[in-house]
UniProtKB/TrEMBL annotation:
<dbReference type="Pfam" id="PF00271">
    <property type="entry name" value="Helicase_C"/>
</dbReference>
<dbReference type="InterPro" id="IPR011545">
    <property type="entry name" value="DEAD/DEAH_box_helicase_dom"/>
</dbReference>
<keyword id="KW-0234">DNA repair</keyword>
<keyword id="KW-0347">Helicase</keyword>
<dbReference type="GO" id="GO:0016787">
    <property type="term" value="F:hydrolase activity"/>
</dbReference>
<dbReference type="GO" id="GO:0006310">
    <property type="term" value="P:DNA recombination"/>
</dbReference>
<keyword id="KW-0067">ATP-binding</keyword>
<dbReference type="InterPro" id="IPR014001">
    <property type="entry name" value="Helicase_ATP-bd"/>
</dbReference>
<keyword id="KW-0233">DNA recombination</keyword>
<dbReference type="InterPro" id="IPR001650">
    <property type="entry name" value="Helicase_C-like"/>
</dbReference>
<keyword id="KW-0547">Nucleotide-binding</keyword>
<dbReference type="InterPro" id="IPR047112">
    <property type="entry name" value="RecG/Mfd"/>
</dbReference>
<keyword id="KW-0413">Isomerase</keyword>
<dbReference type="GO" id="GO:0006281">
    <property type="term" value="P:DNA repair"/>
</dbReference>
<feature type="domain" description="Helicase ATP-binding">
    <location>
        <begin position="285"/>
        <end position="447"/>
    </location>
</feature>
<comment type="similarity">
    <text>Belongs to the helicase family. RecG subfamily.</text>
</comment>
<keyword id="KW-0378">Hydrolase</keyword>
């Protein structure tokens, strides 16, 4: 067909005037015929089956029932009236209910005449009811031609109110298929289609919008999902290849004094195999002439810092500077202290720069950076300020899931001829499958092993009614010289209430653990930073035994003597947050505990989260469950990544298709990196369109 036709503005489709076109654009982002074609249903109503009233289930799916109305009555209610019909089949009785349009319904409904009704059911006082059902006389129903599987398109309130109902969208789609003749050319090569038994594009498009059967719908969806994921993977892999070829980086070809000296004489412990492997991967990157862009994943406590330091040593060996940026001041300070200690015997100039650095100090730092006298700058976002200019920054290490925008990164290297190597460290385990889609353009290293000798943290779930027992346990631990965290949720919308919970909790703990035997710290978001740091430090130094806090302690702090983590209202935390909090203990030699406190009333999801925490300490396993519970959009940092704007595939549910698509994309590029072969012509064309335009679905029909 004529491809240009699909670029026709949606205004020109019969039945779509300027008003509707405007709404389609603003509400759904549909500008062209093409956009409408790629506007996929998010579910289908199965009208292939009729339910008997006795077989109705108490769920909210939409069902179809055949029966007749035997009685109609009006019932008074608080505001207005409702119309109620008794509806029966040969197995039982249910009610149909209307809150509006009584007159019309009374005049038009036929008693004792068979109807097909369709809609959602409610369960109320021992009876099923269906509000505002769709109804059709069986006689009429039999006459009409229909698709049994009815697509339901995503919608908005504004659209429905303006009359762009599901039926209207369906009509437009019909019109589109009519006007274009529905001869969509294929976007995948024959070889792949044959191997995977994929149906042709045109047939897939037809059946996704007008399914002829469950089976064809499944084939259509599989074909379209595969295609979507295939091109995304292809794009990510190409980007990665391009970066390796085109973006030159500083070759760190020397493994010199600093690295050797540290490795041979100052390593405080044996590296784990995972650490060794990761360092090797990094060295390979740095030795090549391409810029490194690597994501280092490792659970809390897996020992990422030492890897970062050794990477920095390679930079110094090659006469480059390095920087390390952390998300909070406390964390930056801990990195600074830790790295100072590790490198005490090496001749390295390290400074700390944060928002609270004094002006005179800043001046010194700026000067030392520009002269090249400073080797390593550790700090917070303050590193990105305009005044911070490096003489020759060769490596930027970023701790904890900052994904910098291009502009921010450029700031770091604005004085360089080449971009520095980048190492992003994150403790949020990203399931491999998700990482493939999100960071397909980054290389990934994983530390999947904890240093030896760690006792795994014992996690239990306790109800609030057992609080006294929990307090007794805390007392015993404190008597043994341990320290304890008690963490309260603080969620913005209900901040006042949460704050009250925190203060109530604090008071009850103070009552239960009186001075002078016990010293208690409290830290929360409404305190001044200086007060927070003061309290934090008292706990770090061991002057207080119990730290009552909100989630401000979530990232970073390292108090190896703390062995108990109590999480209050644990049902209100997300899984990854629970896991991060738990990671605050288990850092010393002692057995550590995590106690999840909740009330008795728990939702199914909360139960799953708690059970997951109790059953495993493995961050990756937890991340997989989290992904299933919440969906990828909620996982930290994924929102910014447009990749997840999928039209038809679902990263979690279509995991297998994703893997398949990736393996095919890899294979194609391996054989034919420039997509020059005749058999890949279709791919080259489609990819070219996709590279030109952002949204891949815009141009691959
Ligand atoms: P994270 O990956 O959470 O940043 P850190 O780098 O802070 O972890 O390391 C956690 C603790 O484990 C630190 O006290 C560190 O000294 C220690 N550590 C790191 N690697 C090893 C190792 N191979 N053997 C023993 N202890 C290690
Ligand atoms: Mg760390």
């Amino acid at each position: 067909m004529n491809q240009n036709q699909l670029q026709t503005p949606i205004d020109y489709l019969k039945g779509v005037g300027p008003n509707r076109a405007g709404l389609l654009r603003t509400e759904l982002g549909i500008h062209t015929y093409q956009d409408l074609l790629n506007f996929f249903p998010n579910r289908y109503l199965d009208k292939t089956r009729f339910y008997k009233i006795k077989d109705l289930e108490r769920n909210n799916s939409e069902v179809q029932v055949v029966g007749k109305i035997v009685h109609l009555k009006t019932v008074d209610q608080k505001r207005g009236k409702r119309l109620v019909a008794d509806f029966i089949d040969d197995t039982g009785k249910m009610e149909l209910v209307w809150f509006r349009g009584h007159k019309w319904i009374r005049e038009n409904l036929k008693l004792n005449t068979p109807y097909v009704i369709f809609g959602k059911t409610n369960w109320f006082s021992g009876l099923f009811s269906m509000p505002h059902p769709e109804m059709e006389l069986v006689e009429e129903y039999k006459k009409n031609l229909r698709t049994a599987m009815q697509p339901v398109y995503p919608s908005t309130e504004k659209l429905t109110k303006s009359g762009i109902t599901n039926r209207a969208v369906n009509k437009m789609m019909q019109q589109l298929f009519l006007e274009t003749g529905a001869k969509f050319y294929d976007t995948l090569p024959e070889s792949i289609k044959e191997e995977l038994k994929l149906i042709p594009k045109a047939e897939a498009m037809f059946n996704v919008h007008f399914p002829k059967s469950q089976e064809l719908l499944a084939k259509a969806q599989f074909r379209l999902k595969f295609e979507e994921l295939f091109y995304i993977q292809l794009q990510l892999l190409m980007k990665n290849m391009l970066r390796k070829n085109k973006i030159k980086g500083f070759p760190f070809d020397q493994v010199g004094e600093y690295f050797q000296e540290f490795y041979e004489n100052h390593l405080p412990f044996d590296l784990t195999n995972a650490q060794k492997r990761v360092i090797k991967e990094i060295r390979q990157d740095l030795g090549s002439s391409a810029q490194m862009n690597r994501l280092l994943q490792g659970d809390v406590g897996s020992g990422k810092t030492i890897v970062a330091l050794m990477t920095a040593l390679l930079a110094f060996d090659n006469d480059f500077q390095a920087c390390l940026m952390a998300p909070t001041e406390i964390l930056a300070i801990q990195h600074y202290n830790g790295i100072k200690e590790l490198t005490a015997d090496l001749d390295i100039n390290i400074r700390l720069l944060t928002g609270s650095s004094k002006t005179s100090e800043r001046r010194e730092i700026h000067a030392a950076l520009e002269s090249g006298e400073l080797d390593l700058l550790i700090g917070t976002h303050a590193l990105l300020e305009d005044k911070v200019k490096f003489k020759n920054l060769g490596l930027a290490i970023i701790d904890e899931q900052h994904r910098f925008g291009v502009a921010q990164r450029a700031k770091l290297w604005r004085k360089n001829t080449l971009p520095p190597h980048i190492l992003v460290m994150t403790a949020t385990p990203i399931p491999r499958t998700l990482a493939m889609s999100l960071y397909g353009d980054l290389d990934i290293s994983v530390i999947d092993e904890l240093p030896p000798g760690r006792k795994s943290i014992k996690t239990v779930h306790r109800y609030d009614s057992n609080r006294l027992k929990v307090f007794r346990f805390i007392k015993d631990e404190v008597k043994k010289g341990r320290q304890v965290y008690v963490v309260y949720p603080l969620i913005q919308e209900s901040e006042k209430m949460d704050y009250k919970d925190l203060m109530d909790g604090y008071e009850s703990i103070v009552r239960e653990f009186p001075m002078p035997d016990f010293q208690i710290s409290i830290v929360h978001g409404q305190m001044k930073p200086a007060d927070k740091d003061y309290e934090m430090n008292r706990f770090v130094k061991g002057e207080t035994q119990i730290m009552v806090a909100t989630t401000v302690i979530e990232v970073g702090v390292n108090v190896p003597n703390a062995s108990v983590m109590i999480i209050e209202s644990a049902e209100r935390f997300g899984l990854s947050q629970l896991h991060q909090l738990r990671g605050r203990v288990g850092r010393g030699a002692e057995q550590s505990y995590c106690i999840l406190m909740t009330g008795h009333k728990l939702s199914a999801d909360s139960k799953t989260r708690l059970e997951t925490m109790v059953s495993t300490n493995d961050g990756f396993e937890i991340a997989e469950v989290d992904l299933k519970l919440r969906g990828p959009g909620d996982i930290m940092g994924t929102q910014q990544s447009g990749v997840l704007n999928l039209k038809i595939a679902d990263i979690v549910k279509d995991n297998d298709i994703l893997k398949l698509a990736r393996s095919y994309a890899l294979q194609v590029l391996k054989e034919d990196p420039d997509l020059a072969h005749e058999k890949n012509k279709v791919i080259r064309y489609t990819y070219g369109q996709l590279a030109k335009h952002k949204n891949i679905w815009n141009y691959i029909s």
